[in-house]
Predict the 3D structure of the following.
Amino acid sequence: RGNIFIGIVSILFIVGINVFLQWKNKSSFSEDAIADYLANNQSSLLVQMTNYFPTTYFGAVALVENANWKGPLYVIIFAVISFVFFVLFYYIAERTYLKGVIGLSTSTAKKQVISAEGLQKSTVQSSHLKAYVKKEFKTLFRTPQFFLNCIVQTFVMPIMLFFILFVQDGNLKFITEYINNPETTGFAIGVGLCASLFLMGSNVIATTSFSRDGSSWFVNRYLPVKASDIFFAKAITAWLINVIILAVFGITMAVVAGISPVFMILWFLLSANGLLLINLIGTRWDAQTADIHWDTEQKLFKSRYTTLWNFLANILIALIIVGGVSVLYFFLHVGLWVMFIVLFVMFTIVNYIFIKMLKLGAERILSNIQ
């Protein structure tokens, strides 16, 4: 029943996006018009698809120009580019990823002779929190199912949804003008915060923090590590991945769209602060509903409601923020800096209170995982 319910929700979500896009682009095309639309270099469809899949343009043109010599030529270009990238990814996988996966169940020795000074440096005691975060990153990157469902999905989905929902006519002109306008920049940073929480706050890294450990979770009870360190290490891991995405996206928008670097820095700080709360909530939710008795990694991601409920909670939080931002902008007429300070201080206070509560109750929370 869980798979059916989640499948229905996913289908409704996909169909909803499709209906929304069709509503925005109401028009009727004949067969010739559709062919011209696909073949036109300025086509917003091809521009957007090429951003996601670079070979799409050559494949589409090959289909349209099938009656002359251009068709086979573009097919050859399409095949060559695809083959080159296949070889490149295969080489990278052989050199790095597959060795990392093998390293999960085997160990190797470098057989290096080190001096007494080198031994002392390599055995310096480190923070339990830092060591556990490193362990979480290795698990995420070296386990194929975790890498695909947590890392890849977290990077790809927010970017795709951003271009689908917020980019108009294949360009960023609307967003750039709205952000660079001094009269609307205060409202823009509030909307930007809501967008980042909505797009990146629903990743499964936080909502599978404890469930990912499976039956090996019980080992944590015998480690000389505080329960609070284990909890916050898992939350910080999910948060750091979100922060990396924020940084890459912010730099890209500043360079490509010409958005003010000051605005992007403020947006980055505000979104990072907000996503910390979202990831703490997701981690706490998984601790409450953790399922460590799964047979395969696929069951971990397909048969649980936690991610769905966390996604709905993120939408609720985003709506509350939209209401607060609207009041500040439309009724109090605040600008960029006042909007930033108010939202940043608000999230800082909430995060501080929530962290204190989790610190005090970490032992009790983790003891409920059975």
